[in-house]
């Protein structure tokens, strides 16, 4: 009898804890967040690759800081273009769940 009461109390506390920790994120929201992170990481990666390549070329050719500035700007443009292209691809995807 006491064990049943303890078990019921434990089940109630577990259910309450689960309800408190759920964030209410749907699958569609989770996919959208993942896509957003992917676009952001691609953008930052393009900028960093451009800056690093410019830095290395500047060190090698002795043109500090001009190639780094130019390739940083080109990396920014490439990252922006890639982000816009990927974003448009997600927007026009017929399997995209908009709920």
UniProtKB/TrEMBL annotation:
What cellular component terms from Gene Ontology apply here?
Answer: proton-transporting ATP synthase complex
Q: Which Pfam families match?
A: ATPase_gene1 (PF09527)
Top-rank taxon of the source lineage equals: Bacteria
InterPro entries associated with the record: Atp1_alphaprobac, ATPase_put
Record GO biological process = proton transmembrane transport
Question: Where would you find the membrane-spanning parts of this chain?
Answer: 37-57, 63-80
Does the keyword section mention Glycosyltransferase?
no
The answer to keyword Cell membrane applying to this record is: no
Q: Which UniProt keywords apply?
A: Hydrogen ion transport, Ion transport, Membrane, Transmembrane, Transmembrane helix, Transport
What does the function comment of this entry state? A possible function for this protein is to guide the assembly of the membrane sector of the ATPase enzyme complex.
Of which family is this protein a member? Belongs to the bacterial AtpI family.
- Protein name per the record: ATP synthase protein I
Q: Which organism is it from?
A: Sphingomonas changbaiensis NBRC 104936
